[in-house]
Amino acid sequence: MKEKGDKMKVVVASTNEQEHHISELVDQLYTEIFPKFFPDEKIVELKNLNVLQPQASDQIYNATLKDAFQIISSLQALIAVLDLLHENKHENEYKEMFERNTQNLNDYGYFFPLTFSEFKEADCQKGQFSQFIRPANQYMI
User: Fold this and answer.
1) Does an H or E element contain 84, and which?
2) What is the DSSP letter of 14?
3) Is residue 96 in some structural domain?
């Protein structure tokens, strides 16, 4: 029974669109970002480790509107930082942003064990063939 003075909290669930957008951003990391930094063997290893997949054992993500927004924001920030990483500008700010957002993802149960240094020191894979890169089109000529 509710005591006098107790407060009730209303929580709004995340939308299907937000859940879909989270999946799209994770896919973007695997198909556009990771292939720039890592060979296919490393990306397969990341998939096998369930990187960026919610971990049921320590999942804090409750599929609320606020949680989904936090995860989306963190994924977008990681993509932006990693996209600009090789420009060698603002490295300290990028590192801080990277660490803050990877910690946020890990806090929500989205396992992300990679460090800023691993990306910074990775051999550029640009121009290398990767099975993870999306094809430009779906038609065989």
Assistant:
1) helix 65-84
2) P
3) yes
Residue 6 has phi, psi (to 5 degrees) of -65, 145
* Residue 130 pLDDT greater than 70, yes or no: no
Residue-level pLDDT at 121: 87
Shortest CA distance to 51 belongs to which of 63, 70, 38, 65?
A: 38
DSSP letter (8 states) at residue 86? G
Residue 5 belongs to a domain: no
Digit-coded pLDDT (tens) for 96-118: 999 999 999 999 889 999 999 99
Q: Which domain holds residue 59?
A: 24-66+73-120
C-alpha 3/C-alpha 6 separation (Å) is 6
Residue at 11 is within a domain: no
Q: 21-34: per-residue pLDDT in tens?
A: 999 999 999 999 99
Q: Are 133 and 31 in contact (CB under 8 A)?
A: yes
| The two three-digit tokens of residue 66, written as one number | 């606020």
Q: Does residue 19 belong to any structural domain of this protein?
A: no
- Number of domain units in the chain: 1
